[in-house]
Input
Amino acid sequence: MKKTFASPDSVSGESRDALIDLIYRLADDDLILGHRNSVWTGLAPILEADIAMSSLAQDEIGQAVAYYRLLHDLGEPDPDTLAFTRSAQDYRCASLTLLDRGDWAFSTVRQYFYDVYKTHRLASLSDGTYAPLAQLARKVRGEQKYHMMHSRMWVSRLGDATDESRERMQRSVDTLYGHALGLFEPTPFEQIIADHGFCTTESGLFETWRDEVHSMLDHAGLTIPGDVTPKHGGRRGQHLPELQLLLDEMQQVYRLEPTAQW
Amino acid sequence: MDTQWRVFEVFHQQTRGEPHVHVGAIHAPDSESAIVMAKEQYGRRQACVSLWVVPSDSIVGTSYNDVDIFEHGTDKTYREAYGYQTTKRVRAQTTKRPKSLREANETGEQS
Output
């Protein structure tokens, strides 16, 4: 039985640094992907899909805020400051989350890859030793369960609906697979995180992700590209130029008047 | 190719034991995707423990041309469930009854 950490005061030193890095990755992935998904509002192929996608975006941004609060409790700046004043190199999101929305197939495949990752990540965090994080992970698992139902539904439908849908889905899988592998980019904190029982290792998460994704894509009639190089860098703050463009847009209003009350 | 999706009627249950109430309809290609989309369309603004979706073309209804079949040819008020309405009316009366003299005195109001 591993020692549990009941509050922010109970973690210090390198374990605190490791925990903070982990939570930044969780928060930034959700905020950036939530922002990308929010641009579908009013544009999704049908009304029903539009409403569902907008809700997913709200869920993700809501979860990001909850993670930023945990960071604030650990001595980091407040959520608004974190979301609206940092520059690209301070973000720890994976490249999968920051790419432009693309077509509906692209956003669907991206969301599916992310949702499988997030589901297993939350399962591990729920059993983790940092109590505030484990509690939050358990609280949002219901939302995540729905996200998974939503993603699986779209992938299985579009994978074999028509030649065009299959072709668009396969193209997105080919483009996004390397970015999805980047979700599991190793970090210098990985061993500390696993040793303290905050969360499982990235390689452990990847194995469960890969087994589930491969079986689902196979079932949907889609092929996993062979010999793909993972797109790393995001977890170290080295990002594609798309992130700065996204931040310029997302932070624009806040930067006009940072002290304004909303 | 027919690009029009099927229509499903959506029924929403607020708490266990209560009836599922018809709340509207959605377009979906099949029942599984109908449930997934109905959840956000109809389950996100109010408490919900269960949703049903039913293909609209599975529902058989009467025609308004036949509305006269519901009219009574002779007096059958003995059959109408007035008891329930009376209960509702009595409950509504008790909740908005005016303050008694004693209550008014206690709060210092003039009667």
